[in-house]
Amino acid sequence: MDSNTPLVTVLIACIANIAGDLLLVAFFHMGTRGAAIATVAAQLISVLISCARISKMTLPFPLRFRNVRWDGGIIRNILSLGTPIALQDLLVSISFLVIMAIVNSIGLTESAGVGVAEKVCAFIMLVPSAFMQSMSAFVAQNRGAGQTDRAFQGFRSAVAISFVFGVVMFYTAFFHGDLLSGIFAKDAPVIAASADYLKAYGIDCLLTCFLFCFVGFYNGMGKTNFVMVQGILGAFAVRVPVSYLMSRWNPVSLFHIGLATPCSTILQITLCCSYLISLLRKQNTQKRCIT
């Protein structure tokens, strides 16, 4: 199992994305076109680095283009597992676009503040994202080897370790959001708006250490349909409605709007816990039947 490559490639992609934004948007003044180019370029760099790392690994099969063949059964399995994840990511991204549209209707300073905060969040969420990817690989390998108990043990350990990082990220984002925002902005009102929004993300850091490990665990267990459902419910049953209601609550506060994210995470964790209990009961029932 290689958990370092996903961490390295995601880290490099985030750094390249931010560097590209600073270069194309701040220096060359290319606006949204520059931001889009920076994002695509960062993903391309991540892919190239991944290919380079994989080419140097010892694999149980030769990695050659001529060995690539169409296998209908494998393709169907990949689509059945991957489509729900892709759909969830798409819809969750749309929900954040809706939130951005809500913030844009409030004012230019608030919109710029949230934009800066999202850049900071790209770093803040790097660690839980790495745990999620590592958790998926770890659980899938142990599940394939028939070591389900070890997969559950790994999940508990990942949550404990991730929570330590979550506490650090909470403290940094909640109490020092202005320092983080100051890296990407110089205008005092924009920094203040970004710091206000980051306080809500700081609270979410204490929750995502659980949620992202849950998501990685269920992806590794092949329960991607459930992952899709809980993600969509969190986005459109909580995050978007709460953001809209908070934007209508005078005086308008980006902190209150940002609270929609931890509220959504709480619902998703509740759903994940309930589903985990049902899986454990099913596993215990199967063990009793075998004995």
TrEMBL record:
InterPro entries: MATE_fam, MATE_MdtK. Pfam families: MatE. GO terms for molecular function: antiporter activity; xenobiotic transmembrane transporter activity. The chain crosses the membrane at residues 7-28, 34-54, 74-102, 122-142, 154-177, 197-218, 225-242, 254-278. Keywords: Membrane, Transmembrane, Transmembrane helix, Transport. One of its GO terms (cellular component) is plasma membrane. Belongs to the multi antimicrobial extrusion (MATE) (TC 2.A.66.1) family. Multidrug efflux pump. This is Probable multidrug resistance protein NorM.
